[in-house]
Amino acid sequence: MKFSALKKEIKNLRIQGAKEIAIACLEFFRYYCNKHGFDKKFEKYAEELENLRPTAVVLHNCLEILRREKTLETIEELLEMLKNSGEKIAKHGSKLIQKRATAMTYCHSSEALAVIKRAWNEGKIEKVYVAETRPKMQGVKTSKELAKYGIETVLITDNARGVFIKECDLVIVGSDAMREEGNVNKIGTFTLGVLAKEFKKPFYVVGNTLKIDYRKKFVIEERPKAEVLRTRLKNLEVRNPAFDVTPWKYITKIITEKGIFTSKKILDLISNPKFIYYEL
Ligand code: RUB
Question: What fold characterizes domain 88-272?
Answer without folding.
Answer: Rossmann fold (3.40.50)
